[in-house]
Every structure is written in structure tokens, then in C-alpha cells.
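Notes, p. 3: input format for complexes.
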Amino acid sequence: MAAPKYVDMESQDNKAKEDQPFTHKKISRRLLLGGAATTAIVAMQSSLGKWIQVSAQQPLLKIDDPTKRIGPGPSVAGKRSPFEHPVRIKSDTSSRTPLQDLYSSLTPSDLHYERHHAGVPLIDPEKHELLIHGMVDNPMVFKLTDLKRFPSVTRTCFLECSGNFRSGKETMNPQEICGLTSQSEWTGLMLSTLFREAGVQPKATWFLAEGSDAAVMTRSIPVKKGFDDAMIVYAQNGEAIRPEQGYPMRLLLPGWEGNTCIKWLRRLELSDAPFMTREETSKYTYPVKDRIRQFSFEMDARSIITYPAYPNQLERGWVEIRGIAWSGRGKVVQVEVSTDAGKTWNAARLQEPVLDKAHTYFRYLWQWKGDETEIMSRAIDETNYTQPTLQQLIDARGSQINGYHMNPITAWQIKRDGRVLFKYIN
Ligand SMILES: Nc1nc2c(c(=O)[nH]1)N[C@H]1C(S)=C(S)[C@@H](COP(=O)(O)O)O[C@H]1N2
Ligand SMILES: [Mo]
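Output follows (426 residues plus molybdenum atom):
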């Protein structure tokens, strides 16, 4: 597939660092095969009475009638049906969640989008330390095992890159348009717990969060957010957080720009002013008309129809329009769907429970009679913010359509022959 025409905000100014390939030690093929041979072969009796050997790590057997032969037994780690192929699509610096392949609001961990400024570091939790210092009464250092001793909390929320918008051609699917958003159930401790432990001083209003990747990514965050709902998370969807998501620990700021959720977190420094790091001067700061927008933390309400979408082929009759809606400012209170190119709007059904700062799955029943039209959705959040049209965004910000915090209403064109195409914007 030809690459879509777009400007990827997050990749542009990162080239120098990102051209260096990320290398890691290769695991030898012999080692893998040897391991499989000794541990994974199980003997099974078929319905015909013959014993056959099946490696649990081999693909499931292809048989015409599964009721006539006993299948492979239990395995130590599961895998998807070979008939299902959801995958992230990737560039050198990011990979995108296949939103069109998901049936609910949660993102399987191996499909969570990724955005790395300098690759994924491999970190041994035994050697990793988190330092908290600066305007605190007791500077402290914590290992992962120390953090796990604090009272823990679990919360489900989305994480979205602030550069999550692409456009440029009709043949783009939801993943290509806005696959830099994913949702997980995160577990860790409240940052406020650590703040109290270290004795954050009343004068401290900002803190720096620093990662231990080759980018040494740093961002300044208001202490208020730290005391509100910020977490340090070490688990994702019930298991240890994945290396791509920041193993062994990351900062999680629910509803805020993905770039503030520092992965591979190693340092927190309390201060009375923002630090003005590379990530808040050369990046993530941008002109809006005649002004400069800096520290634009909250992600704006947004939604997208993930079915039907390109490259689905519609048939006449009842269609369940499905999609996700989310807001960094709280709960989604309503999602409206238009099936007549934006002339009229109707409320979609929201899947309960609707969570704060979380992807909310929506559904809307529609009877397609074969006419050419456009379908689209818009999210309204509890602050009464309504997802804007692209034209409204352009009017508010100047002419540029590529950039940070682009959350326009996304429309799909329905052609008379049932083709569904992205109503792209150039
Ligand atoms: N240390 C570190 N933290 C980081 C980054 C990074 O490159 N290094 N990327 C940031 C950006 S731009 C985003 S959008 C999110 C992506 O998180 P994910 O890869 O878990 O989806 O992590 C943020 N935290
Ligand atoms: Mo990002």
C-alpha cells in the first residue's frame, strides 16, 4: 500500500535520533528450537487410536472435521486464532493500534500503540531506580519492589499521542487516521502517595519527570496533577507493563498528552517553575494564530466510527455503526451520529460503564437503503465540549491542518456500490 500523504508531527523533528537503529542481542534460532523440542512436544491420542506428536508451539492442526480428532492440549502461553490478524502498522518511531479490529474499548497489550523517541530500552528491574528529589523534605530512591509495597490502585483510561491525526487520501482506515490512541487497565500507586512519602514542599508547583531511554525524555508537570490522579504504573491489563509501554515503570497522567506519560521513569524533581525542556520548547509547543500554545496538556474530546470504515464493503439493510469516543477532560456524556452528511444528528448508545478519561464504545443502528451519503460521529464530554469540524479547527487556529491536538469529526463516504471511503482532508 502506498504511504498516505500527510505530515507526521511527531516524526519530523526527531530524525537525527531516530535514524539510529535500535539494536539488541539476537537470540539464536538453535536456542529457540532446542527449547521448543525439549519442552513443548506432547503426545496425544487421536480418535483413531494412534498416538501423534504435536508441538504446542506449532500452529493448530488444520483438519477438515474438528470433531473427528483430538486437538492439541493446553499450552503455557496462548495465541490468537490463525484466522485473526490484528496488527499494529509501524514507522521507525511509532506503531498504531488497529482500531477497526477491536470490538470493545480495551486494547490488547500487544496492540497498544507505541511512540518511542529513541527506541525501547531493555531494563533490568533489579538495576532500575526511581529518584525523587528537589523541593522535597526527604529525597528518596525506590526500586520496583519498594513501589510494590505501597497501597496499589487500578484504573482504566486511554493514552493518546498529541500528534494523533493523519489525512490525505480516501483509502485510509481508522488505524491510519488515528491509531495513536489505546486503552489499558493500569495498576500501580498514586503519585500522591510518593509525594507524601518524600514530603513535597508547599512551594513546589512543578515537577520534572525523566525517562531512562536514549532520549532521556523529560517533561514538566504541575504538582497539582501529581496530587490529583497521576499514577506510577508497573502493570498493564493484569500483567507487568510491557517494555514498549515503559517497563518497569511509567508515569500515567490520565487524559493528558501521551508525551507527558514518561516511560522507563527514573527521576522526579520538584521545583517552583517549569524546567523548559526540549520537549516543551522545540516540540509540543506550537503556534495558534498569533500566539504560542505551550503546556497544552489535556486531550480534547474525540470520536471515530470504526465500523463501517474503509475498506469495508456495505450491504443494504441494517448496519450497526460502531466506534469509540473519549475525552481527556472527563466522561463522554453523549455521542451523536449523522448518517446524512451532518444535516441531522442522533444519539448513539454508549456501552456502560462509561469511565472517566476513557475510550467509550458506542453503537448506532442504521438502515442503509443504498443511497450515497456520509456517516460521521461527534463526542460531547462532561465539560459540554463538542468535538469540532475540521473547518472549526482551522478557523480557530489558522490555516494549518497538520499539527498537535487535531480532533476533527471524521466522516466516511458511502458509495452507491457499498464502498466506504475516508472523506479525507488536504
Ligand atoms: N521516556 C520516554 N517516555 C515517553 C516517550 C519516549 O520516547 N521516551 N514517548 C512519549 C510519547 S510522545 C507518547 S505518545 C507516549 C507513548 O506511549 P506508548 O508507547 O506506551 O503508547 O509515551 C511518551 N513517553
Ligand atoms: Mo506522542
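The CA atoms of residues 332 and 381 lie 4 Å apart.
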